[in-house]
């Protein structure tokens, strides 16, 4: 049994490698819901969808989000109406949101509908939202934007998509986390896993909200020797997204050493890229064992090779 | 000033005639919301949409609902997921529901978002939902169906669309009506109108929920001489939909005389089709004056001619 802690694109790639080296039905992916939002009355779970679309082989590899070969009829009409269209929802993608929202309104939990959707997409990996309760990442902006003066707190997608994460950040808060409970199966999976993989996702806004759900961090601390993380920072930069800038802005060195420092209490092994080989000793000085390997998943084969490294990495 | 009481298709045709004979911005359409529903978390207002699409010239004249040249990408994907797809929502139509639902969730009233949408569609006719409060037509079925045994009460669209109104009905109820208030402007429009037109809509399930909103029926009774209705029953049959069967099942003769009897307390003039000319005296015996004219709006010219008849009909 293998558990993967997941954000969006980096995690989806990691999972697509893992399913090539271990039986998919032995994998449980615990997915961030801090990015979730309500838009047009629909419940949107961007990380769950990215993981689902990727494992179903229907992901849009160019954008890193949404569905391949997507069409935009609904959004086009919504734009003509003057509706909010900064968060782009493709026509096929919308079917997911309609299905999910209808089920939630009928009383289903997010984990139940996530499980239904992954089965209906033919996915054998067990997908669990970190929690069925609302946890929403809120971002305090360090600069004035169209959304308000410096110091304004906005929803994650306002920062990430609407402002294209081009603005400095002064703080993060995981609204609702203190009252959230891990989704059914989360703590059980963490307790039973042979290996717990921390995918190369944003440590602060993808892995952070997972850790903020009461009980999850403690469970990880208890499994520390079996927790293997892949650094999302390579040569001082994030491969995608604002992880490097967020780390710097919020007081952590944007490097594999910074990742090691953040993860040290609960990660036993950190896999870093060959580009960072010179930092291996500094990583180990922070606590985790360090493994150096190619971590850039540019191809399915590269993702599978990294998956093999991670599975063999456990101390 | 002219007010039109509206259901769906018949009312939309009547309005498209009226706008050809009086300035559109002197017309206020008060539209039934008893057919409204929540589906996939979206607020759907079928009658408001039929009227809006028709006045915007984007209605699908073949189906009588939805948008011309519609595409079905979202529904196709939803069907592949095994989601509920019996209520067909086209891609462009969905943009309306997303816009409306997002606005309602942000705190807008149904009348505010209806007004916004009609303006953005370039419609000069003032569109008012009968009420901003939830009024939902519930149908008690007289026969067993896939939805339950005889006597089961279902939502209107379950009867109308899901069961294709092919089942006998034992009763109607307008859930929420007793607590509903007329939408802002409804009573004012009824008080100020020179003529109040009752469009050829289903008397029981389109006009009925309008009358059930406290205050509306009394306002109409007070304006009786100025209320002109067009019979939706021609030669004993409804031109579209189940009005004739519903009337028979619920104890009213499905004829122009039956319509006259239903409407007598608050309708001063009833316009009936030439096919029913022989019933004119029986209509007047029920109370309303009777005018005989072509009422089948097969073409835009026919609709405009009927509109002229209605406007000239006031006693």
Describe the structure concisely for a colleague.
Two copies of one chain form a homodimer. Chain A is 39% helix and 18% strand. With 315 residues, the first copy, chain A, is α/β, with parallel strands linked by helices.
List the helices and strands and how they pair.
2 copies of one chain form a homodimer.
Chain A (H helix, E strand, L loop, with lengths): L1 E5 L2 H13 L5 E5 L5 E3 L2 E3 L1 H10 L17 H8 L10 H15 L4 H11 L5 E4 L6 E6 L11 E3 H7 L6 E7 L10 H7 L2 E4 L4 H10 L3 H7 L4 E4 L2 E2 L2 E2 L4 H7 L6 H8 L5 E5 L6 H7 L2 E5 L6 H14 L2
Parallel strand pairs in A: 1-2, 1-9, 2-5, 9-10, 10-13, 13-14
Antiparallel strand pairs in A: 3-4, 6-7, 6-8, 11-12
Describe the protein:
Chain A is an alpha/beta fold and 315 residues long. Chain A folds into three domains: 96 residues, Helicase, Ruva Protein, domain 3, CATH 1.10.8.240; 40 residues, no CATH class; 135 residues, Rossmann fold (3-Layer(aba) Sandwich), CATH 3.40.50.10680. In chain A, the strands form four sheets. In chain A, strands 5-2-1-9-10-13-14 form a seven-stranded parallel sheet, sandwiched between helices. In chain A, helix 1 links the parallel strand 1 and strand 2. At the A-B interface, helix 3 and helix 4 of A face helix 3 and helix 4 of B.
Mean of the pLDDT scores of chain A? 96
Extract low-pLDDT stretches of chain A: none
Major sheet attributes of chain A: 7 strands, parallel
In the CATH hierarchy, the third-tier topology of the largest domain in chain A is known as Rossmann fold
Helix content of chain A: 25-40%
Determine the oligomeric state from the structure: homodimer
What share of residues are in beta strands of chain A? 15-25%
Q: What is the SS-derived class of chain A?
A: alpha/beta
CATH H-level superfamily title of the largest domain in chain A: CofD-like domains
Largest interface: A-B, 32 and 32 residues
Shape of chain A: globular
Rg of Cα set of chain A? 19 Å
The helix/strand order of chain A is EHEEEHHHHEEEHEHEHHEEEHHEHEH
Task: Give the beta-strand count of chain A.
Answer: 14
């Amino acid at each position: 049994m293998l558990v993967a802690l997941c954000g969006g694109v980096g995690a989806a790639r990691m999972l697509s490698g893992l399913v090539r080296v271990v039986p998919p039905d032995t994998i449980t992916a615990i997915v961030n819901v801090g990015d979730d939002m309500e838009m047009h009355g629909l419940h949107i779970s961007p990380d769950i969808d990215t993981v689902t679309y990727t494992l179903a082989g229907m992901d849009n590899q160019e954008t890193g989000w949404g569905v391949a070969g997507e069409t935009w009829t609904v959004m086009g009409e919504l734009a003509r109406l003057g509706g909010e269209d900064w968060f782009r929802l493709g026509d096929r993608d919308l079917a997911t949101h309609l299905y999910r929202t209808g089920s939630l309104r009928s009383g289903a939990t997010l984990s139940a509908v996530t499980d239904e959707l992954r089965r209906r997409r033919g996915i054998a990996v067990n997908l669990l939202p970190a929690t069925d309760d609302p946890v929403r990442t809120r971002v305090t902006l360090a600069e004035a934007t169209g959304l308000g003066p410096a110091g304004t707190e906005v929803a994650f997608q306002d920062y990430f998509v609407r402002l294209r994460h081009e603005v400095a950040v002064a703080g993060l808060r995981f609204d609702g986390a203190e009252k959230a409970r891990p989704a059914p199966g989360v703590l059980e999976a963490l307790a039973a896993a042979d290996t717990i993989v921390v995918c190369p996702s944003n440590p602060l806004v993808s892995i952070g909200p997972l850790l903020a759900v009461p009980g999850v961090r403690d469970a990880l601390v208890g499994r520390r020797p079996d927790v293997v993380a892949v650094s999302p920072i390579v040569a001082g930069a994030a491969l995608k997204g604002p992880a490097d800038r967020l780390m710097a802005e919020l007081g952590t060195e944007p490097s594999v050493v910074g990742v090691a420092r953040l993860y040290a209490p609960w990660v036993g092994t950190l896999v870093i890229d060959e580009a960072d080989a010179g930092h291996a000793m500094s990583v180990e000085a922070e606590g985790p064992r360090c493994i150096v390997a190619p971590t850039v998943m540019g191809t399915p084969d590269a993702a599978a090779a990294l998956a093999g490294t991670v599975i063999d990495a456990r101390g």
